[in-house]
């Protein structure tokens, strides 16, 4: 007897046939007494299509109305899935985010789950239902529908699993687990049997697209083991959990990630006086712009000024431009330069702490391949280099070749 949350993404529920296939698989694997919650995304490219539809009406970000629109995608999936289970002879019920008791902050398009009152879910399970919950959505305390950011169904699934104390949360996807690097870029990337929350979170933040970072954070907070596995086969996927289950060898490097959604912004000739960096970054924060790598350097050629460089997602650039139009006079900046053809390559692994050679090896590989490093940043378990986008696939492959030459994941 187990209580399991299973999440199926958009491509897994893209057609009625695919939905029926999920129903067959779930029912075939269900032991008597098992209780099953299913979280689904919108069918196929529905969310993208809805975004495109809104763009035909406006280019403005009407956050509340956007969430009203986007949340409909998941609602279609849950209703059809519930019908598909009932057609196969099993009791099932669909629940929206609100009906499942999910309260979020009132940040439209990037709501954060604040609370889950899952009594309805528990009652429906007790009643013998398979409970099908709309991913990616919740409701504010004022009753407005919110969405959790793209890819947010993962977060819904893990949070629900935490709230009902599920034995496991299974994320079904079109890859069969987490790889040491993106297998579409690195031909010899290896599937990992397991990875820790900390390492997975770092990989996800640094660009590994398999899981939404907040889903991993939720898993860690509620200690829910997350099993990332294939929709199309029964092979064991990758377990994301607190620690490695076996006393296996210490991994130095767990993965090599890349992120192409990066732009570099340089503010030239900022007056070198107290309070100017604060001014820039507090204005950016007020606009909810997530700033990543930051470097400030004193300009030798021109006394009394500094250049401040940072990175953001490319989609934030219009907002960054607006901020600088507003504060430029105040901070005395000469100019801002924007380069939106940048990318990040990162190595991640909890084992690298106390191994100073890792950074040197990574820089050496980039140098040998004539790839210039613009900015370097590190955390306790990662090293990231900002490089030109055109070189990043090659960089990832070469770095992966080096660190995973004789080892296996
Ligand atoms: N349907 C939403 C999206 O495409 C949420 C998700 O798939 O997780 O981003
Ligand atoms: Mg989707």
Summarize the structure.
The protein is an alpha/beta fold and 409 residues long. It has eleven helices and 18 strands.
How many separate helices? 11
- What is the CATH superfamily classification of the largest domain? Acetylglutamate kinase-like
Determine and state the CATH class of the largest domain. Alpha Beta
The percentage helix is 25-40%
Output the strand order for the largest sheet.
Answer: 3-6-2-1-9-11-12-10
N/C terminus separation = 32 Å
Hetero groups? aspartic acid, magnesium ion
Total individual domains: 2
Largest sheet: 8 strands, mixed
Structural class: alpha/beta
| Overall pLDDT level | 93
Q: Secondary-structure element order, as H and E?
A: EHEHHEEEHEEEHEEHHEEEHEEHEHEEH
Strand content: 25-35%
List segments where confidence is low: pLDDT < 50 over at least 5 consecutive residues.
Answer: none
CATH topology of the largest domain: Carbamate kinase
CATH structural architecture of the largest domain: 3-Layer(aba) Sandwich
Family: Belongs to the aspartokinase family.
Catalytic activity: L-aspartate + ATP = 4-phospho-L-aspartate + ADP
Keywords: Amino-acid biosynthesis, ATP-binding, Diaminopimelate biosynthesis, Kinase, Lysine biosynthesis, Nucleotide-binding, Repeat, Transferase
Enzyme class: transferase
């Amino acid at each position: 007897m187990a209580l399991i949350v299973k999440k199926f993404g958009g491509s897994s529920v893209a057609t009625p046939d695919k939905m029926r296939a999920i129903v067959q698989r779930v029912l075939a694997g269900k032991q008597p007494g098992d209780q099953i919650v299913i979280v689904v995304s919108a069918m196929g490219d529905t969310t993208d299509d809805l975004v495109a539809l809104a763009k035909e009406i406006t280019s403005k970000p009407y956050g509340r109305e956007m969430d009203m629109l986007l949340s409909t995608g998941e609602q279609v999936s849950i209703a059809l899935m519930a019908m598909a289970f009932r057609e196969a002879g099993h009791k099932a019920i669909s629940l929206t985010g609100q009906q499942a008791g999910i309260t979020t902050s009132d940040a439209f398009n990037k709501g954060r789950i604040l609370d889950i009152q899952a009594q309805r879910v528990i009652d429906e399970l007790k009643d013998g239902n398979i409970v099908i919950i709309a991913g990616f959505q919740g409701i504010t305390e004022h009753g407005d529908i919110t969405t959790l950011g793209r890819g947010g169904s993962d977060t819904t699934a893990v949070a629900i699993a935490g709230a009902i104390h599920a034995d496991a949360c299974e994320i079904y996807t079109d890859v069969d687990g987490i790889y040491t690097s993106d297998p579409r870029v690195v031909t010899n990337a290896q599937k990992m049997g397991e990875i820790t929350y900390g390492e997975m979170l770092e990989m996800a933040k640094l660009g590994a697209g398999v899981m939404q970072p907040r889903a991993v954070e939720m898993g860690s907070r509620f200690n829910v083991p997350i099993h990332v596995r294939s929709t199309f086969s029964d092979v064991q996927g990758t377990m994301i959990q607190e620690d490695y289950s076996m006393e296996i060898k210490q991994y130095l490097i767990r993965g090599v990630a890349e992120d192409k959604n990066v732009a570099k912004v340089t503010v030239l000739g900022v007056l070198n006086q107290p309070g100017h960096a604060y001014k820039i970054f507090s204005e950016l924060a007020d606009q909810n712009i997530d700033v990543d790598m930051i470097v400030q350097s004193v300009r030798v050629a021109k006394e009394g000024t500094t250049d401040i460089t940072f990175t953001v997602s490319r989609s934030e650039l219009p907002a960054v431009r607006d901020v600088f139009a507003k504060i430029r006079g105040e901070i005395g900046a000469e100019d801002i330069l924007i380069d939106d053809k940048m990318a990040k390559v990162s190595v991640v692994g909890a084992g690298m702490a106390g191994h100073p050679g890792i950074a040197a090896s990574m820089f050496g590989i980039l140098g040998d391949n004539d790839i210039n490093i613009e900015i370097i940043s590190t955390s306790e378990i990662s090293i990231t280099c900002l490089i030109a986008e055109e070189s990043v696939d090659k960089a990832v492959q070469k770095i992966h070749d080096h660190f995973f030459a004789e080892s296996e994941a």
